[in-house]
């Protein structure tokens, strides 16, 4: 609930998500609340990849944050990215670190993996 507050997401907002629907039923979507999406489906505490950071760039409104996120995906910033990995930075950490991120609720499932 604290995370949703920080991300300015209404926990009761309804969202329709294709990515979390059963694979065997093509064309199905799951309709759930934002709170359930983040607590039961998305792996908020997993370790992000550089690919995740690349996908975040367009959602950063602040130009400095956009540059910082983009730079973390570059080879010359490998060490800095690995330090963050060593400190066990999670998806949630990155999402809350960059305050200017404006991600539509239905896009989170495209950005993050689901809980295994």
UniProtKB/TrEMBL annotation:
InterPro entries: CysJ-like_FAD-binding (IPR003097), NADPH_Cyt_P450_Rdtase_alpha (IPR023173), Riboflavin_synthase-like_b-brl (IPR017938). Keywords: FAD, Flavoprotein, Oxidoreductase. SUPFAM superfamilies: Riboflavin synthase domain-like. Its cofactor is FAD. Residues 2-116 form the Sulfite reductase [NADPH] flavoprotein alpha-component-like FAD-binding domain. GO terms for cellular component: cytosol. Pfam families: FAD_binding_1. The keyword Oxidoreductase applies. GO terms for molecular function: flavin adenine dinucleotide binding; FMN binding; oxidoreductase activity. PANTHER family: NADPH--CYTOCHROME P450 REDUCTASE, NITRIC OXIDE SYNTHASE-RELATED. This is Sulfite reductase [NADPH] flavoprotein alpha-component-like FAD-binding domain-containing protein. It comes from Spumella elongata.
């Amino acid at each position: 609930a604290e995370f949703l507050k920080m991300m300015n997401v209404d926990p009761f907002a309804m969202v329709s998500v294709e990515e979390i629907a059963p694979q065997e039923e093509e064309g199905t979507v799951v309709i759930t609340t934002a709170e359930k999406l983040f607590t039961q489906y998305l792996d908020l505490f997993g370790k992000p990849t550089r690919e995740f950071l690349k996908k975040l760039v367009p959602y950063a409104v602040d130009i400095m944050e956009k540059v910082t996120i983009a730079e973390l995906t570059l080879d010359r910033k490998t060490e800095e990215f690995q330090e963050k990995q060593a400190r066990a930075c999670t998806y949630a950490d990155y999402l809350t670190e960059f305050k200017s991120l404006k991600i539509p609720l239905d896009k989170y499932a495209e950005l993050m993996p689901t809980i295994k």
